[in-house]
Amino acid sequence: MPDDAPTDVVSPSPGDPVGRALVELARHHAGRVIGLLASRFGDLDLAEDAVAQGLADAARTWPERGVPDSPPAWLMTVAKRNAIDLLRRADAERRRLERAAPDVLERGQPGDAGGRHMIHDHTPDPDGPTSDELDDGQLRLMLLCCHPALDRDTQVALTLRLVGGLTTTEVAHALLVAEPTMAQRIVRAKRKIRDAAIPMSIPADPGERLDAVLTVLYLVFNEGYLRHSDGPAIRAELTASARRLAVELAEIVPEHAETHGLVALTSFLEARRSTRLDGAGDLVLLEDQDRSAWDLETIGVGNAALHRAMELRQPGRFQVEATIAALHANARTAAETDWPMIASLYGQLVAMTGSPVVALNEAVALAMADGPDAGLRRLAGLEGLDDYHLRWSAEAELLLRSGRSHQAVVAFDRALGVVTSDTERRHLERRRAIAASG
Amino acid sequence: MTEYMILAYSDEDRAGPEPGTPEFAEYMGGWMAYNQMLIDGGHWISGASLAPTGTATTVTVGVGTAATISDGPYAETKEQLGGYYLVRAADLDEAIELAKRLPITDGAFEVRPVAFRPDA
Questions:
Q1: Which of B89, B91, B113 is facing A110, going by the closest CB pair?
Q2: Interface of A with B in 196-215 (CB under 8 A)
Q3: 3-state DSSP call for residue A75?
Q4: Is the pLDDT of residue A2 over 70?
Q5: Other Cβ atoms closer than 10 A to A389
Q6: Is A105 an interface residue toward B (CB < 8 Å)?
Q7: How far apart, in whole angstroms, are the C-alpha atoms of residue A76 and residue A83?
Q8: Does the pLDDT of residue A125 top 60, yes or no?
Q9: CB distance from A124 to chain B under 8 Å?
Q10: B116: which chain A residues are within 8 Å (Cβ-Cβ)?
Q11: Inter-chain Cβ pairs, chain A and chain B, closer than 8 A
């Protein structure tokens, strides 16, 4: 299957420059070339097959001949040639079929009137692609993968597969879905794109569509950031893919403030990722994290992106979240954190999203700003979070802080009753023991 | 160009304007304008408004069993299939735009590509 041809190129041995270049090609450039070819040929499957073959060609020839000067231009040339070969072969097959069984062709198949034959009136220009063209391809592909006619899970899977350059196996792993299920989901999505003629267009006002792309990238990031059950490699792959795609998108649509907001948010979170878990894989609270280990360069990227977003004066939820993350990331000690500002920002975010989880964060911030009772008052008004362990652990921590350890134990028990992650369960058990002994 | 069927679902029990009133004329005008827009834009293939589901009869067949006839629509839903349009559109985005412009303020439109149409 060409679909997963690049599987063997994705785990280079350390210190192998060709291997790294191949991974870079699959992750960074393949999506752009797929997007560009798919919009030129009007055929996503063709573009994907042609690029998969190109990646396999690279894996075969680069170790001997070396990495070409411009990998994306090389991939574009090779993939375009592959696409034309595939079209010629399909044409030859069609002619053979026409001779042998003309009745089969007469009925026609949905979608076959378009794409495959557009080559004759849409001959690609012989010059290499400009970076603008590649960016355009990338944007079209992102918008297509996150088209509202595809459900959210499908959007996430397609974005990782087509734009992020992960193989179907890797996408299945990363999203905790059985591989055949994921393969089927991707095949079904591509069939819908083809048969329902979902276009690779850029709408005149792409704002809403870009928001969908950002939501998908944020989901991918969180999937890698919040999950503790898998190896660090796959999690890092998800957070890195999401953040990289956000950065690339920000370069393509520099006037879209929320995209910069997402770049900032994911940068701030990424900067302190290595300090979130201790040696045993247990969660370390923000206030206990080793701030000297936070990645200052990535925090700098976040600050610059947030600054850029603010200049554009288009408020949005990612910018508010990024501002909150910035206040944490730029506080040299936990005590220096500007909690009143964070509480007020969470209040804004509640107004924007109506999310009870955000209201829970607001309660915690209020407690940090004005004492545990302020937080407990906010928690008392929360609805719809009874099955969410963090709601109960927050209450337990605030009760503990205000000296009501018996009530805290009861709240920890409620949290333990609904928690699912083993890491978080261990953390809750430790905290409950402290409350019980107090 | 792809052909799409737009299936229009809405609550058939919600009272519309009385025939003969100016409101009714305005309501019908909306439909006429919509149809004309489809024709002028080269989208029109066909369309029909259906009588209410109270008039529906469902015929169910199965291998080895006799056909059964029952009173009522195939699916009892909060909103009912009230009519359809068969349109020609450049792509799904255009078909969705056409669906959005239907003169129905409260309902749902299912947009599906036509796989095969013997009279096409």
A1: B113
A2: 196-199, 201, 203
A3: helix
A4: no
A5: 21
A6: no
A7: 10
A8: no
A9: no
A10: 107-108, 110
A11: 32
pLDDT at A103 over 70: no
Superfamily (CATH) of domain B2-113 = Dimeric alpha+beta barrel (3.30.70.1060)
Contacts of A149 in chain B (CB under 8 A): 92, 96
Q: Is A49 exposed, middle or buried (0-12, 13-18, 19+ CB in 10 A)?
A: buried
pLDDT for B15: 79
CB contact at 8 A, A270 and A295: yes
Whole-number Cα distances in Å, A78 to A19, A83, A261? 19, 9, 36
Other Cβ atoms less than 10 A from the Cβ of B70: the count is 11
| Cβ within 8 Å, pair B90-A107 | no
pTM comes to: 0.82
Q: Report CB contact under 8 Å: A107, B116.
A: yes
Res A363 pLDDT > 90: yes
User: How far is the alpha carbon of B66 from chain A, nearest alpha carbon, in Å?
Assistant: 32
Distance from CA of B25 to the nearest CA of A (A): 35
Confidence of residue A4 (pLDDT cuts 50, 70, 90): very low
This complex has an ipTM of 0.85
- Put simply, the answer to whether B90 touches A199 (Cβ < 8 Å) is yes
pLDDT for A379 beyond 90: yes
pLDDT at A256 over 50: yes
Residue-range domain boundaries for chain B: 2-113
pLDDT in tens, A391-409: 999 999 999 999 999 999 9
